[in-house]
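Long-time lurker, first post. I've been practising inverse folding by hand and with some scripts of my own, and I keep getting stuck on stretches where the structure tokens seem ambiguous. Below is the full token string for one chain I'm working on. Before anyone asks, I'm not after the true native sequence, just a reasonable design that respects the backbone. If someone could post their per-position residues I'd love to compare against what I wrote down in my notebook.
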């Protein structure tokens, strides 16, 4: 009886573990304002006024909702946007390269940092951090 229960449990949990490995982004991720602001402060000489402007509720509102094949990216104060198809083009322990079919200029390199990921915005020379969250 115990053996049957263990086999049933493994059968039920096996696919879920496989899916998590095949779909590392699945879930809801929200911009982490403190981490993003710390990255900006550490890598840029900004005036106190400029830092204050960025700190004034600018970051921390972007939300990424990932399935295994689609992304919804929008602000927490807006209605959810339409989903956009994506593919993982490269995957390593350190990062993912996400591509969007038909949108060559929209590729994103997501770099893991703990349980969060960061995206470097080349035109702005900083990273925005996103951490997993459960939104109501």
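-- Answer (accepted) --
I ran through it position by position. Result:
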């Amino acid at each position: 009886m115990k053996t049957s229960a263990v086999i049933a449990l493994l059968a039920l949990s096996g696919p879920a573990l496989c899916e998590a490995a095949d779909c590392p982004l699945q879930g809801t991720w929200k911009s982490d304002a403190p981490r993003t602001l710390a990255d900006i402060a550490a890598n840029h000489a900004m005036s106190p006024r400029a830092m204050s402007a960025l700190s004034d509720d600018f970051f921390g509102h972007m939300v990424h909702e990932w399935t295994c094949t689609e992304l919804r990216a929008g602000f927490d104060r807006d209605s959810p946007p339409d989903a956009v198809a994506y593919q993982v083009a490269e995957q390593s322990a350190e990062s993912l390269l996400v591509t969007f079919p038909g949108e060559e200029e929209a590729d994103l390199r997501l770099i893991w940092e703990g349980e969060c990921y960061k995206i470097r915005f080349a035109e702005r020379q900083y990273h925005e951090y996103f951490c997993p969250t459960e939104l109501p």
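A couple of notes from the structure itself: The two ends are 40 Å apart (CA to CA). The first helix runs from residue 2 to 22. Happy to go over any region you disagree with.
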